[in-house]
Every structure is written in C-alpha cells, then in structure tokens.
Amino acid sequence: MDKKFVESIPLSKYEILTDEGFKDVIALHKTIPYILYKLKTENKELKCADNHICFGENDKEVFVKDLKRGDKIKTVDGIEKVIDVEIYDQEKEMWDFELGQDNFNREILHLCQSKGECSYVEAKEQFIRGVMETEEYYNNWIMVRVRKSHIKEYNVRLSQKAEE
C-alpha cells in the first residue's frame, strides 16, 4: 500500500465524472492527514487537501496550495476565477479515488465545425449504434443539449452532399 494511504477499499460498479468524462472507480483510499484548504471560485466552493490538483485555463496542473486570488481554473461549468484560498489550521484525512483503465477505443467518425454539431452527431451515432441496448459498448448515459440552430450548417452540408 502506498505510504500516503492508511486504508483501501476495493470498489466496482461505480463511476466518477472526470475532466475526460466518466471513469470507473476501482478503489477508494483513505489518506494520511493533509492540511485542509477551502477553495472558492465565482460559483463553486471546495474543501480539499493542500496538494489537490486543479487545472489552470491553459490545462496546466496546479496544486490548490499554489493558487492565488485572481487565478483562473477549469471547473465543470467552464473557466472560473479564484476568489479565495483559505488555509484551515487543521489536518484531515482525505479520500483518493483510484480509476480504472478506459474500456473503449477512440475513433474519428466525423469532423465537426462546432461544439453543438459535435454533440448532435455524437448522440446520433450512439442511437444509431444502439449503445444503450447492448453490453458491447461501455456507455451508461447519453446526455445531449442541442438547439436546431446549433446544427444549421451541418444540415446545409448534408443537403449539399445529397445533391452531389
């Protein structure tokens, strides 16, 4: 067992949302005590270890203890400005998730010209392939929010292709 862990619990059938999408959690590890920090952004608040890793707006990893007021970090809702980094006068045991390997292959099927178009085409491909109806695929969720205006150019290109 790693020296920073004091206890480990094997897990299965759990997933966690990461910056790369949902990943399998294969173990949960209780850590040695770490200095407790509270990170506040414009819309979020997080209590975590001093060496908790965040991602700056340039995708560079940065520890919470190294963040300063005004820095910008990535959150689930996009880039947010750090409002405050508070150090608590205490140490606390933390929990660390161990993630499994990716269970899928990446393959480029379409080149899209916007995020909305990409979201639409990705969902369409998943429904066409019946990914929720078989164990052959890894998908557990299909989530999409697309307006018709998001795929306007996509529809124009499809019409032009059909006329050729």
Structural write-up:
By secondary structure, the chain is α+β, with helices and mostly antiparallel strands. It is built from two helices and seven strands, in the order βββββββαα. Strands 1, 2, 3, 6 and 7 form a five-stranded antiparallel sheet that branches. A hairpin with a 2-residue loop joins strand 6 and strand 7. The radius of gyration is 21 Å and the shape is flat. The mean pLDDT is 87.
Please tag this protein with its features.
5-stranded antiparallel β-sheet; single chain; 44% strand; Endonuclease - Pi-scei, Chain A, domain 1; 2 helices; 164 residues; two-stranded antiparallel ribbon; alpha+beta; 7 strands
- CA-based gyration radius: 21 Å
- Name of the CATH first level of the largest domain: Mainly Beta
The N- and C-terminal alpha carbons lie at a distance of 62 Å
Secondary structural class = alpha+beta
Helix content: 10-25%
Reported by name, the CATH topology of the largest domain is Endonuclease - Pi-scei, Chain A, domain 1
Number of helical segments?
A: 2
Low-confidence stretches: none
Please tally the β strands and state the result.
7
- Categorize the overall geometry: flat
Report the mean per-residue pLDDT as an integer.
Answer: 87
Q: Could you give the order of the helices and strands?
A: EEEEEEEHH
- Under CATH, the homologous superfamily of the largest domain reads Hedgehog/Intein (Hint) domain
Give the tally of structural domains: 2
Which CATH-level-2 architecture of the largest domain? Beta Complex
